[in-house]
Structure formats: structure tokens, C-alpha cells
Amino acid sequence: FRTLRWAWRLSLLSALGGVGWIGYGVYQDRHPEPQIEADPTKKTLVILGTGWGSVSLLKRLDTENYNVIVISPRNYFLFTPLLPSCTTGTIEHRSIMEPIRTILRHKRANVKFYEAEASSIDPDRKVVRVIDNSEVKGATVETEVPYDMLVIGVGAENATFGIPGVRENSCFLKEIADAQLIRKKIMDCVETAAFKDQSPEEIDRLLHMVVVGGGPTGVEFAGELQDFFEEDIKKLIPDISDRFRVTLIEALPNVLPSFSKQLIEYTESTFKEEKIDIKTKTMVKKVTDKTVEAEITGPDGKKEKVVFPYGLLVWATGNAVRPVVKDLMVRIPAQKDSRRGLAVNEYLVVQGTRDIWAVGDCAVAGYAPTAQVAGQEGTFLARLFNNMAKTEALEENIRDLSGSLNLKPGNAAEVSREIEENERQLRRIKDVKPFHYSHQGSLAYIGSEKAVADVSWFNGNFASGGSLTYLFWRSAYLSMCFSTRNRLLVINDWLKSKLFGRDVSRE
Ligand code: FAD
Ligand code: NAI
């Protein structure tokens, strides 16, 4: 009884702590401190993008040290790890969006935000050319924004490798609009298949959902899609239930190539149980409005052409360089051998430039293009810039103090002491170590309330897959959500879809 009583007290205490923590988060969100005005005499720091790299930088940047301007066509931060859940309505899209205006309002000094796209960067004149495609203007507005320091965090676009028909016929999965389109198309396929007098071949085609790319995006989406079908569509529209199929096509011999062998096997066997058909060693060559044409390499090395009729096609074959980045790479001779993005040094400075840094998927620093890398790079740059500002302030102080030595001979000892202290601080601050990425592990949802995790554990690696890992996956992503608001909305969505099922209405 005594143990029970203690357990009860402890759980009550932690529940109260949890409520207090959420309450504090909500209060802070709604009551930001008054901001100081940005000082235009300070260096202008222009940050491109509002993704993982740029927002991590903004989160920790002391904005009073610079005149900060953020430019991005997206006026929100998107928590991409939960984007696949938005394609089926497990999570509503707004739950994983955090307005950039809210983020900026919580900074100590005011930050300017322009909703626009950078179209080119001139490193000689130190200007960024930006385009505002706002619908209310009716016409495109183009202008230039000068910078003293520039951070490029524009991410990447979808790779199609120039395969004919991909752009015209596929859905991608990178942005909120992509997830919304997929959600709409799934239900369009289902409702059209259920329509009167459809031929059996047409029903099979419409209900065949093809995913190209067996990386984490393709795998997570396939898992979410099969869940949606098993848990909701099958119950609501039983007459088409035996026709729904998900096929995952991958060019390599296995899916999730970046995960350990054990987890690859676990994922493939789970997909088999979930009735997701995996076609490995299958390279897509062409896409039409109703078919995917691919080449399968058999065990004997022979290649065979196959055609998959589809209703929905989701293309998830990784990243390609954005035009604005390509354009800059052409202007810088030191970038001529770089293919995957802007080559950066160990301080994330774009090779061959001055005062330009790059973070995240558009930067080539020797790491995988993940949110984890982008986030750590952004945090590193914030520390670097905060230190640079402090260094400049200390150097100025030392200059002033040295100048005053002659003017105040009586205080010489005191002033010298102060100079020494400033110099000591300066040495400490100047000693910024180069960027070092610390890998925390990889997680992926694979459907049926199962996940796989390759987690770094002390100096080793810990691989696990299953339902417990799924709970870990959920709690890890919940804790990583940007704000308390996001966390509460995501919990609410999870509860809602569990209790009432996903919403199958097509908007
Ligand atoms: P992004 O986050 O893509 O941000 C780029 C920003 O630049 C955006 O705000 C965009 O609007 C803006 N922009 C674009 N063009 C311009 C322009 N011309 N001018 C100005 N701004 C521009 N990684 C993980 O580590 N774990 C995961 O679980 C995970 N899940 C993922 C799930 C999905 C579905 C996807 C697509 C990716 C996932 N990733 C995950 C990868 C991760 O999202 C990316 O690596 C990360 O977003 C890269 O951050 P970034 O800041 O470089 O780019
Ligand atoms: P990816 O680059 O990881 O995988 C793309 C896959 O498509 C590759 O396996 C490739 O072999 C295959 N492919 C390419 N062309 C093909 C073709 N013509 N036919 C058939 N298959 C083809 O891309 P993904 O999944 O979009 O991920 C991008 C980045 O985002 C990665 O770094 C990934 O780690 C990260 N990410 C991480 C997640 C997580 O940790 N849970 C979730 C989603 C993305």
C-alpha cells in the first residue's frame, strides 16, 4: 500500500508538472515580451528559407546584434517528419505548421520577413534578387535586397532525373500542398472506383496506388496509406475492399538503404504482412497519365520491361538542386565540381565566397540531407554569429579602452586590467570549433502501428523495430514539434483519428 501511495503521488506530481509545463508554454506563446527595434546601422544578415536550417538558426540567434531579414515563399515552418501522416488525415496539415510571424515575434529584436522567392544571388554586388508572386498584386513584383551577410537555407526540390512524364503525372511529397493533393486524389480514386458501372480493369487501375522510391519518404507514405485503407476506407466502402493495392517501386535491391540490414528485413517482412507489394531492382523509365513503365532486373541479371497501371502515383526519389542554388554555383568557379548543392567548408561558408553561408539540403557538408543535419547546422551558425557579434563588440571596447589609457593616466592600472579581461574573453569566444554533426539516429514509421529505429547509443548503434519503437517514434516526434501549440494539435489529431477514424471527405 505504501508503494502504491508513493506511485500515486509521483504520477499526480508528474501530471501536475506536465500541465504546468503546457500551461507555461501556452502563456509564453500568447504573451511575447516587447521587442526592441532592429538597428539599421548594424550589419544586414539576410536569411533565405524558413525550413529546418534557417529556423534553427533564427531560434538561437541574438537578433539584436544584426539587422535581420528573412526571405521565403513560405510564411511558416513545416515539421516534415509528420508530413506523410497528413496525406491520409491522421494529422491535419495545420497542426505541423508554425507561422514564421509567431517565431519572429518571440525574438528580442525585430526581424523583417518578406514572403518572396530568391531568384538569384549576386555575390559581387552582395544583393539577392527576389520575386513576390502574391496573387493579390496580380503581377509579379521583382526587387533586390542587399546584404552584408547571407545564409542560404532554401532546401532542395524533387529529383525526377528527367524521366519523361514524372512532373506532369506524379504527386510529390515535400510541401503541405503536396500532402493535400495526395489526400484529395486518394479519395478521388476511391470514389471514382465506387462509381456506377466501372469496368473491373478500371477499378483495379484506380485502386492501385504506386509509390516510386523506397527511401524513408516512400516507405512512410506507403505505410500510412495502407493504414488508411485498412482502418477506414475498408470499413466505410467495403464493396471495393479487395481491390485496393499499394506497390512500392525501388531501383536498388532493398528499401531504406540508409538503415541497418536487420531493419531493412524487418520493414520488408512487415510490408509483406500489410500486403504492400515491394518491387526492388525495378527502375522506373517512363510515366504516362495512367501507367508507370519500369525495368526489372531479374536474379540472372536479365532486364524485363513491366507496366503498372495506376490511379495514384507518388514520386519520392530524393532531392535535386534548386534553380537559385544552381545559378549561384555557376557564378562561383570554386563550385564547378559540386553536383549536389553548395560545397561548404567546416564553418559552413560557401566555398569560393565571402560572407555567404549555406545550411541544410542545399549545402554539401558531407552529411545526409536530413532535418537533423539541417537543424544542427542552423544552431551552429547561430552560435557562430552570436560569437562574431560579441567579438566585434569586445574588439571595439578594447580599442576604446586603449585609446583612453593616455587620457586617464590615473586609472591606467584599472583600464589595463579591463583590457586584459576583454582580451581573455575575446580569446575564449574566438576559439569556435568547426561544425561537427552528432547523429542521434534514424526513425521511420512503417505502418500497422510499427516503426523502425536506428539509434546511436553511447558509442554504438541500437536497432529496433515494432510497436514499442512506434511509441518511441511518436514520443520523439512529439517532443521535437516546434511549439506547445503544435504538440497539442498533433495529440488531438492522433486521438481524433483513433476515436472517430480519419475524415474521408474530399474537399
Ligand atoms: P527545408 O526544410 O525544405 O526548407 C527550405 C525553405 O526554403 C522553405 O521554407 C522553402 O519555402 C524555402 N525556399 C525554397 N525556395 C526558396 C527560394 N528560392 N528563396 C527563398 N526561400 C526558398 N529528416 C529527418 O531528419 N527526419 C525525418 O523524419 C524526416 N522526415 C521527412 C519527411 C518528409 C516527407 C520529407 C519530404 C523530408 C523529411 N526529412 C526528414 C528531411 C528533412 O525534411 C529535410 O532534410 C529538411 O527539411 C532540410 O531542411 P532545409 O532547411 O534545408 O530545407
Ligand atoms: P532518398 O534519396 O532517401 O530515396 C530515394 C529512393 O528512390 C532511393 O532509394 C533510390 O534508389 C530510389 N530511386 C531513384 N530513382 C528511381 C527510379 N527511377 N525508380 C525507382 N526507384 C528510384 O529520398 P527520400 O526518401 O525522399 O528522402 C530524402 C531525404 O530525406 C533523405 O536524406 C532521407 O533520409 C530524409 N528523410 C528522412 C526520413 C526519416 O528519417 N524518417 C523521412 C523522409 C525523408
Please tell me about this protein's structure.
With 507 residues, the chain is of the alpha/beta class. 41% of the residues lie in helices and 22% in strands. The termini are far apart. The mean pLDDT is 94. It binds flavin-adenine dinucleotide and 1,4-dihydronicotinamide adenine dinucleotide. The site of 1,4-dihydronicotinamide adenine dinucleotide has 27 residues, from α8, β14 and β22. Flavin-adenine dinucleotide binds next to α2, β2, α3, β6 and α11.
Percent of residues in beta strands? 15-25%
The radius of gyration over CA amounts to 26 Å
Largest sheet: 5 strands, parallel
Number of helices: 14
Give the end-to-end Cα distance, rounded to a whole number of Å.
55 Å
Which consecutive residue ranges, at least 5 long each, have pLDDT under 50?
none
* Secondary structure category: alpha/beta
Mean pLDDT: 94
Shape: globular
Helix content: 40-55%
**How many strands appear in the DSSP assignment?**
24
Strand arrangement, major sheet:
5-2-1-9-20
Task: Provide the list of bound ligands, each named once.
Answer: flavin-adenine dinucleotide, 1,4-dihydronicotinamide adenine dinucleotide
